[in-house]
Amino acid sequence: MAAPDVFDQRDEDGIVVLLDPSPGDEQLDAVREAAGVCPALAIELSETP
Amino acid sequence: MNAPASVLVVGASAAGLATAEALRRKGFEGRLTLLGAEAHLPYDRPPLSKQVLSGDWVPERARLRSETTLSELDIDLVLGEAAVSLDAAKRQVKTDRERELAADAIVIATGVRPRALPGTAGLSGVHLLRTMEDALALQAELTASRRLVVVGDGVLGTEIAATATKRCGSVTLVGPQAAPMEQQIGADTAKALAALHAERGVDLRPGVGVDGLVETGGSVSGVRLATGEVLPADAVVVSIGSMPATEWLAGSGLRVEDGVVCDAHCRAAEGIWAVGDVARWHHRGLGRSLRLENRTNATEQAGAVAAGILGAAGAYEPVPYFWTDQFDVKIQVYGLPGPHADTEVVEGDPADGRFVLRCTENGRVSAIVGWNMPKQARLRRAEIAYA
Ligand SMILES: Cc1cc2nc3c(=O)[nH]c(=O)nc-3n(C[C@H](O)[C@H](O)[C@H](O)COP(=O)(O)OP(=O)(O)OC[C@H]3O[C@@H](n4cnc5c(N)ncnc54)[C@H](O)[C@@H]3O)c2cc1C
Predict the structure, then answer these.
(1) What's the pLDDT tens digit per position in B226-248?
(2) Shortest CB distance from A11 goes to which of B44, B332, B375?
(3) Architecture of domain B6-113+243-309 in CATH?
(4) From the CA of B56, how many Å to the nearest CA of chain A?
(5) DSSP label at residue B382
(6) Distance B76 CA to ligand 1 centre (A)
(7) What residue ranges do the domains of chain A occupy?
(8) Strands B31-36 and B112-114, how do they pair?
(9) pTM beyond 0.90, yes or no
(10) How far apart are the first and last CA of chain B?
(11) What is the predicted ipTM?
């Protein structure tokens, strides 16, 4: 899974849960990647400087 | 190779759009054109046999990206126009509107087309499922009083049968295998899947070929099995596999053999790449050529192709992955289970309706299959030999 510090999956049903709603800069590339590859298109990213 | 100044992507669906997005995400600032034969904004196919077919989603919900997101990508999006030929040496594409498009790099992302049963063209009540139009046309046929026969026990046919039980009074699934999807999920899981379908009211006809369709007054009225038996039907879905959409590459100079033949980097020729369902590339980890028809590959391979176009050197060697949702069961498959693998339950218990199965071949883990245990299955992906 992309960005494991930001997202996890629930044990029971595999639904992705958000661990960190405002991840730091060092996570940015991984989170962008996750939003790009998420098959369910469930990740929306808003970037504020 | 220097980064190109312009890129043309042919095919504007999952793989083509993901390539365009990955190029921008990785910093490509040149001219980017995305050419697609379908008139719709890019949409996703997995929901077509699930939420769209069942009527739970309106078609717009299957869109891959919103109009705003697409416009932010700063691409030339040309829809409803098909490529009709490619000159690989000149990197030039001709379209069905007599236009010529040239670019420093060309990406082939034209996917596949479903195979039809011979002699069934124009017969009313007979369906294929690949596009949004196909899904809506099939959906309109599924009502409580109708009898649906699904021909083909691969992933798509099996999934359609499951979804159709929500709308249709009678659903039959016919196919040559002993149990549905055996080839893709292995014999043990396929048996569990057959039991699930039977329990939910699908009439399974395993291990039998189809001879042809029976017609009455221009409409399909039955499916004739190799045994001579005729299954009565008001509607038939034919789901017997697909063919790469490569007709337009005739005379291009590229090698086409059940897909566009590529090297380990998904490159078909200098400056020409292929991605998604249409691409057959050399998978180094598996030591052979591979063509995958699944959603995750479309996105992952797009990332690899975009990186390659921008000069990265790594080979593309993913662990194949697909999922399917049938009734209330979510199946995830990592790797290639293969018909001769030894299997072992490593998590959960089939009796509880949740398990993870490990497939081993020649002493190496070849696949992990999850049944209602998506997270646990994913965590074991790393056990696969070339992961
Ligand atoms: C009903 C259905 C359900 C599915 N469910 C799942 C699932 O549950 N899990 C999973 O992993 N996968 C699933 N898949 C597979 C997944 O959708 C495909 O792997 C994915 O769509 C491949 O993307 P692609 O862009 O390579 O090809 P496609 O989606 O086939 O897109 C190719 C595009 O290129 C266009 N094109 C073709 N020829 C030309 C031309 N000459 N010029 C211009 N454009 C052209 C086509 O019109 C099309 O829009 C499903 C597929 C279908 C059909």
Answers:
(1) 999 999 999 999 999 999 999 99
(2) B375
(3) 3-Layer(bba) Sandwich (3.50)
(4) 16
(5) G
(6) 20
(7) 1-49
(8) unpaired
(9) yes
(10) 29
(11) 0.72
